[in-house]
Amino acid sequence: MAKAVDKRQAYSIIGLAALQVIFQVVIGAVTGTKLDQGDLCQLNLDPQSGRVCDFVYNTVGFGLLFSLILIGTVYYTLAKARPGTLTAGATIGLAAYAFFWYLVFSITISIRGRQATDAGQPGTVDRNTVVGLSWIVTFAFLAIAILAIWERHVNKLPVVDDELKRSFLYKVEKVSSSGSGNSPKAAAEVESRSLSTVQEAHEGLKARPQ
């Protein structure tokens, strides 16, 4: 029997997204309790402008939504669909979109935060915490996209016997071997040889350099 696809990619995606949820909650909490002083935002060179703090809240809100959708999508697929299969297309698209959003966000607050620190604004440790966690979340989205791309690449070939039996090569091999007789033993031998042939072809394709 062909070995089913390992679920480690799925659990890795869930784990990364769960860490993102925690880090984004911390980003929002630190910004709200330490850096956002009402009319003042200590993520800015000009603390009178609160737009950078608002940018943090908006990004964290959407980021949490993206991470929770990723967790729910992968978990649902593991629970309901064929083991080892992810809805990779949706996962890749969502993770890639979130990565670019967070990339812009992280670059923005890194520049603004450095300007505020160089100008002597208070809250340096809190700013560095927000900036550092934002970059971790950014690259976590990138890692999720890469894992989903890899999982989709692995799953593009048949990996279990039920799928092998539905493949065109299996049907061709079974027809070509059907002259062995009509007894149950002969039929079992034909099926075994057909599965073996298709599995060997599958393994050969997987081992082929990309």
From TrEMBL:
Keywords: Membrane, Transmembrane, Transmembrane helix. Residues 200-210 have a biased composition (Basic and acidic residues). The keyword Membrane applies. Residues 174-210 are annotated as: Disordered. The keyword Ribonucleoprotein does not apply. The chain crosses the membrane at residues 12-35, 55-78, 90-111, 131-150. It comes from the Eukaryota. This is MARVEL domain-containing protein. It comes from Auxenochlorella protothecoides (Green microalga).
